[in-house]
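ESCALATION

Customer reports they have been waiting on this structure for their group meeting. Please prioritize. Original submission:
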Amino acid sequence: MLIPRQTTPALSVPTLHHGTFDTSIDAAENFTLIVFYRGLHCPICMKYLLELARLVPEFEKRGVKVIAISSDTKERTEQMTEKLNAPELRMGYGLSLDVARQWGMYISTSRGLTSIGIEEPALFSEPAVFILRPDTTLYYGAVQTMPFARPNFTDLLGAIDFALAKDYPARGEYTGSV
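Update from on-call: job pushed to the front of the queue and completed.
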């Protein structure tokens, strides 16, 4: 389990049009928003990433870098990017499932074709959203077992505004006995 205010596991993935994304050298002014999505096969991911892409300029105004990452291949990520038609959204691919596990994500097995007629990979990670401080410590995390009911990006913008205005610390950091 990742702990707020603690350093997150190393994360480095290639992106389609923005070079390598590496949390150890790619810090934002205030935060980095990492959106892990299931992949090309997921129709809910498409809708979710469209909303994220629409809000990238709002995140950037707040000093937040944004990236969407999946365990999909480069080819599948290119197909997703074509469908999204959102060149401003940095798209990472080839996430190792071992790294996904280090980040606390759940792994699913293929059920074949999805409702949109695209084959699920044999194994893939379920969605997660993390916000990191520039020093790669965890500020916010949401990990899911299913593709439904994901964190709302407009709500996250409001939370970032509050955190920046009030210098609000990451919560959930206590690891002692209870």
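Sent to customer with the following note: The chain has a mean pLDDT of 97.
Escalation resolved.
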